[in-house]
Amino acid sequence: MSGPDAREGLVDQVREAAESRVDVVVVGLPGSGRTRLLGQVRDVVADVGFDVLRIDAVRGEGRPLESLALAGLLSGPAAPSALAAASDQLVQRVAARRTVLLVDDAERLDETSAAVLAAVRTRADVSVVATSRPPVPGTRVVDVAVGVGDTALLTVPPLAFEDVHRMTVELLPGGVDVDVVGRVFALSGGLPGIARTVVVAARRAGRVVPEGGRWVARQDLVTPALAVVVGRLQEGLDEAGREALHLLAALGPTELAAALQLVPWPVLVQLDDHGLLRFVETEGRLVVALFPPLLTDHLRNADRGARGRRAAEQISAAFGRSTDVAGGRRAVLGSPLRWSTSPESAAVLGRLLREQSRTNLLVRRHAWEREPTGRSTVMYLDALLGDGAPAETIEMVLAQSRELAQPSDAPLQALVLTWEATYRALVLRDAPAAVRLLAVARRAHPEQSAVFDATQEHLRLLGVDDSGAFPPPSDDGSDLVGRLDPASASSSSADAQVETVVALIGGEHLIAAGRMADAATALARLALPTTSPRRDGEALGPLARVCTGALDEGTSTAMRLFDEAQGGLDQAEIEPHGYTVALGLLLAGRLTDLREHLTIMFALNAPSPLRPQPRAGLLALGAFLSLAEHNLPAARSMTEQLEALDLRALPFPIARPGPAHAALALASGLPPEQAAAPAWRAVAGLVDEGWALAAVFDAALLVDLHVDPAVAARAAALAQDAQGSLLPLLGRYLEAAAAGSATALLQVADDLRAGGLLLHATLAHASAVRVLRRSGPPGDAVHEAARLTELVAGSGQELALLVPSAAPTADLTPRELEVARLVAAGLTNREAAERLVVSDRTIDNHLYRIYRKLGVTSREDLARLV
């Protein structure tokens, strides 16, 4: 996600270096945004008083000083022997004041121009800021140009996913499916120039098309038009390096041991020096992949000629002689140490997941063709769906499974029927067909009716089936819940797998109804058969722990399982565990960590089609963070996709579009009551049905926008009967918000903070400040605003995004704030008046109003607040 721009921090570092007369080399691949960054540096250093000269380096083979001449820095032609004369001219040009020389694409400088810059650097009060592609150090002309004084080396960071999202929305007006942005990010690795080119080329080639009000990808986004980008990335490589690119592209992300059988270390070092490799560490192994991933996809598609054939033959020969490494080349990874530490690693892993998806499809198809049992059918159907197979193929497999079904395989054939029902409801969006299928299945297999009832309950919990034809056997779901007891499971392996599905859905019901402690305890006891095609319980358990209020325990467990899912390339489990991690980070107020995690999640782009609720949750969390960052286009795009999923996702705390839709309506100018009314009506419906988890969480987000006292009070009453500490605490927050009591809000804010729920603690505290400003003593409002500001600043997690209006100085005018900051910095009234070119009396009047608004009586108090 976005947030404090890492590139803005880079610009500040460059400015500070220039002020200290330290040269800077900003290193980045072509397409990394080096030129745009240099433009930002120019504006910043000019604002602080530097003279700025910019040189756009060009390749002037045989024409020394060409870059300086084109920049207008030389008054006449200069020969190679005129280096001193060129230096004199440039020194005269910069003699008047401190100057910063900006050199773009410094690797293109000729040696004479580089020598002139070095000479000027020693003779004049100048700093050099150069951009260059890697390798640096290692590019001779760059080393010469900035090799005189102290030099800092800075690397251009990749864009966060949210920034790529923002760019994509600008290029594709209207809604953009997150899948499209995920693909763009995965190809570009977050390099903005490449991301932009991918989007423009894909749109021109018809690879992305508008459908249902938003842009979707129906084909691969790699087009022949990207050849120019790939060519620029290869500049500077020798023939061995170019050949290695084709070999590694054919291999895909692979273990280092396998890569070294084809590419020797010196060539790998060359590629790494040029920024075209990424090494991702796992337990005891390294995976090596080309970067950006576009290189792999483009070279694979382009390798139809002699170079591609040669690469294929080399790979075949190498691994034909070494079968152990050939097998290891596609081995499942161990639990990773660093998969999730950067968007670049996420892009590499996303590429590896797609490779693994194709491999799984081949393996599972072979297993199904060899022995078409119920289990192999479900596994094959999952692989087909995960690989994006057309509906016709899936229908064919389903038809064949019905023809080949054996009576002895009845329990697992029941799972095939539940898979089909879920597929029709969630993927084909045909809930009536799913309900009819389950009804037929009950009649054909009455002994398996429990799993069919549970499946329909699952669809009801997701909100895709509201027919009510087959509600759970009891209002509290006790018939399903009873199956959570491992002692009730059958001794048959097949029956145990069916019991597992029933038990897991019982756990979903418990969580949705607010019985999280019961769910967490029961799910922890449930032993999932190793052959079970459903592993949902592994994700439900940590989610239940988070929802009881055990944030640290639940989040850390989910993070461990998330890492294991990545290490095992288990695409179906990545988003379920990733959602729980994201939820825990949000509730704990760890917004910086949440942004980084969501960037990884969307960059991985690993949805599970039959488990859309984690994707809904991630979209809801992404929309929430985008709204906090005032990134309305991204928030709107994510909310539209969330609405398109059309899920209630009752066992998931934050996964419904109502609160985000209300916030967007408020931002568009609607009055708060009108903007939030539809979402509050939805909460009232959830309360009526007794779904405590969804009702309380949605209400706790809505009260920050507008309070419906009646519905909030009803949700609060429902929360008090819930298990654990989390929902009761949120219920007290709702009760205080409904009453409009600053005292109650402050008390519950402290209690929420003590419980580790920093998100809602901050929101409750900010609400109390607003109440005090409207109707409380001014001094109390100032005191609590200052305390909140101090608490927010101490978190180190950008909680200020949630409460920009809570700052003590929020009520000051721009001029009053300017005066307050000068006085807080220690200036006297007269000094402040001279700085602002006003009279002493004007400063006195400003300070009088500042003191009244802030409730302070001294400069010391003012300094503490400001």
Automatic annotation (TrEMBL):
PROSITE patterns: HTH_LUXR_2. InterPro entries: P-loop_NTPase, Sig_transdc_resp-reg_C-effctor, Tscrpt_reg_LuxR_C, WH-like_DNA-bd_sf. GO terms for molecular function: DNA binding. The keyword Transcription regulation applies. Signal peptide: none annotated. GO terms for biological process: regulation of DNA-templated transcription. Residues 464-492 are annotated as: Disordered. Keywords: DNA-binding, Transcription, Transcription regulation. Residues 805-866 form the HTH luxR-type domain. The keyword Transcription applies. This is LuxR family transcriptional regulator. It comes from Cellulomonas gelida.
